[in-house]
């Protein structure tokens, strides 16, 4: 489609350069506030500066560059994504959006727009090192509390100490928050992390909403016993009860569009082949772009769990560990993005995001939009994560076109 | 029932003495060939000697005392059980049978019978340290092969090395085997490890058979994926497939008498709340006193697993990790034990053992019998394992009476 792929090639080269900053050989491991994260942030700050944006690292570890508009201090369009990764993940998840945003500013070559642009490389989108997530974007959105920094990682390192060692300052997290009046909106380019675009042969998709999500940690307690001596009729098997819930979550979510449910963890406490499970622990994750659909499903599953518990004489303890409402993308942004996509001869494809993103957090501060890039096999969070230089080039051009249209429309 | 509980009291005191030899504070942890096992073996050898039996530790770590009959070298009635325990288990499982046997010889006070008695404290009945089980009794039954000693524990210690350090000799394991002609039979006293006797208010039960058991390690491989982005209809969820098997094992075994089935372990590889399980591992344990019933159930479950695999597009890999046929107790021993039980005014209660025991291994060498002792709540393999001094006293008297009756009947 585009014979000249320079935009895409530069972004892909830089993705590879950043992928060297990894704690693992196979796959990318760049955890929040790790030395690898710091190295990535520093290199990204250099690239921002080189693209014409004075850059700095803020109090919570985000790297941010600001490209002023036609006069200093104008409200800013925020662009970006995150620089941290899961353990043994892929190199495009997050990083792509930061580098596409820098490329977008770079190609302006000093041309000033009727608004400023701020490019963010957020920290802690993934939430794998500490028992929290989305720290960087939440600080910008102004939704953090001081206690957020009191949690510890698996080695007992407290988030606030790790942040100080990184060069941040937990006491100044409030200074990171933006005022609504200073912000025009937020646009994020991200890999799809799902199979839809690939299945339909479309390079990019325009996100209409980000699913709301609820996550639960469930423990079920029955009675342990000898696998050979307790008759089937006298058992209170915790794993069998948990298995019923796994299938109930699946059945309930299969039965409805725009709803997914997953039991991703399952563990029998002191499990042994010859012992009837006395206690089992598992997770439940429920998502939908429609909060009502999600809540109704959770209520239904809760009632099923209650019925399973009383029928099987086991006790369920359910703790909510994560809750984020769905986020609707700005209708205006969707329209502009679709126009930009169509401009390159691509049929606009609206898509709902089942994964969470920094954009949903920024949605509490300002209007947001997202552009998804097709990825191979729908795979993410794995070393096999893969995208094509052509698709990246297309995404960069769409983003540029979107920014230009916004400037022309005089949206300030 | 018995005002004089001296027999039971001495056995209970000695159980407590041996319980000091534990690697854990809570519960008893006396693993095969551990220092705690060695200390227990040495003290038991002292008690054997004191009861009139020259005692020694054999090449595989069994402690054995021999009480000669009316002339040296007569065939022996074997008595005993095991001295090793599970991790954090109870103090009566195994130990009770060894100490009841010593008490039985002790009260003969030198009186000679028309047969010898050999008392065994077997090692490695439980099979928790090394990936093998019933080592001690298998050596006596003559069913071991040299390769048995090549396995390693979780720390990488090879069984044969551990045995040498313990004071045994893996190269001499064949010397431990008994000739059929030298053995009259084997009798084992053991806690029930189930709730039947307690439910019916009966102190001891006469075992008619020991269930055969098959154990499997199952892996199921589907496709991992993002919990938010892969539609329900496109999933190949390994845990959901495993959950179906858990419920199928339960359903199949519930539907038939004299059959139990258990999934005791379940683990999602790299499980995370927001990741669709790609691989899950679990165990299946199937037992029945009737080998045909067990085999038919295994065939049925295998067919179900095949159907689940093809319907869900996941692959099951099934590995058999344990297989022991059922063991019928000697009709003559059952009759003698029932008479002994009735002699003390207790209604004889026949009971089938769902748990495996050294007796089933000895069953390959000679006729066997077992006497079960009621235990609290049916609990075993846990610190809460508990039996009463009255019941132990009764069990000792029944054993004595059985041995006397055997002597009177002139069974040699």
Task: Give an overview of the whole structure.
The structure is a homodimer of 412-residue chains. Chain A is of the alpha+beta class and 412 residues long. Chain A folds into two domains: 3-211 and 326-408, Zn peptidases (Aminopeptidase); 212-324, Alpha-Beta Plaits (2-Layer Sandwich), CATH 3.30.70. Helix content of chain A is 34%, strand content 22%. The first copy, chain A, has eleven helices and 16 strands. Chain A has helices at 6-19, 35-50, 95-106, 135-141, 159-166, 196-200, 238-254, 291-312, 331-343, 358-362, 389-408; strands at 55-57, 63-67, 76-82, 116-122, 183-191, 204-210, 212-221, 225-226, 260-262, 266-268, 275-276, 279-288, 315-324, 327-328, 350-353, 368-373. In chain A, strands 1, 2, 3, 4, 5, 6, 14, 15 and 16 form a nine-stranded mixed sheet that branches. In chain A, strands 7, 9, 10, 12 and 13 form a five-stranded antiparallel sheet that branches. A two-stranded antiparallel ribbon of chain A has the order 8-11. In chain A, helix 1 (6-19) crosses helix 3 (95-106), helix 1 packs across helix 11 and helix 9 packs across helix 11 (389-408). The two termini of chain A are 33 Å apart. The model of chain A has no long low-confidence stretch (mean pLDDT 95). Chains A and B meet through strand 7, strand 8, helix 7, strand 9 and strand 10 of A and strand 7, strand 8, helix 7, strand 9 and strand 10 of B.
């Amino acid at each position: 489609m585009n014979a000249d792929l320079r935009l895409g090639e530069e972004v892909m080269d830089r993705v590879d350069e950043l992928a060297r900053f990894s704690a693992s050989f196979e796959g990318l491991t760049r955890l929040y506030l790790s030395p690898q994260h710091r190295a990535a942030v520093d290199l990204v700050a250099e690239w921002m500066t080189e693209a014409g944006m004075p850059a700095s690292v803020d109090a919570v570890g985000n790297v941010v560059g600001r490209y002023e508009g036609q006069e200093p201090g104008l409200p800013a369009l925020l662009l970006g994504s995150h620089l941290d990764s899961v353990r043994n993940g892929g190199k495009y998840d997050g990083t792509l959006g930061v580098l596409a945003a820098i490329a977008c500013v770079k190609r302006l070559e000093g041309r000033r727009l009727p608004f400023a642009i701020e490019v963010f490389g957020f920290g802690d989108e993934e939430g794998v090192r500490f028992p929290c997530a989305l720290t960087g974007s939440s600080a910008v959105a102004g939704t953090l509390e001081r206690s957020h920094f009191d949690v510890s990682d698996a080695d007992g390192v407290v988030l606030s100490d790790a942040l100080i060692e990184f060069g941040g300052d937990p006491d100044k997290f409030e200074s990171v928050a933006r005022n609504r009046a200073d912000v025009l909106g937020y646009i994020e380019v991200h890999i799809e992390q799902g199979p839809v675009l690939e299945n339909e042969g479309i390079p990019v998709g325009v996100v209409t909403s980000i699913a709301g999500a609820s996550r639960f940690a469930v423990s079920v307690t029955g009675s342990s016993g000898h696998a050979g001596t307790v008759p089937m009729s006298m058992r209170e098997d915790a794993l069998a009860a948990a298995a019923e819930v796994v299938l109930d979550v699946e059945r309930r979510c299969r039965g409805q569009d725009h709803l997914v449910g997953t039991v991703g963890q399952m563990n029998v406490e002191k499990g042994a082949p010859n012992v009837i499970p006395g206690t089992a622990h598992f997770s439940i994750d429920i998502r939908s772009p429609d909060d009502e659909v999600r809540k109704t499903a959770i209520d239904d599953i809760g009632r099923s769990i209650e019925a399973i518990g009383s029928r099987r004489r086991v006790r369920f303890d359910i703790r909510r560990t994560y809750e984020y409402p769905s986020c609707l993308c700005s209708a205006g942004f969707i329209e502009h993005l679709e126009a930009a996509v169509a401009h390159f001869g691509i049929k606009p494809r609206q898509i709902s995001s089942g994964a969470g993103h920094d954009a949903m957090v920024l949605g509490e501060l300002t209007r947001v939009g997202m552009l998804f890039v097709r990825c191979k096999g729908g795979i993410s969070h794995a070393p096999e994560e893969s995208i094509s230089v052509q698709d990246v080039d297309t995404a960069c051009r769409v983003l540029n076109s979107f920014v230009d249209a916004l400037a022309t429309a005089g949206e300030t």
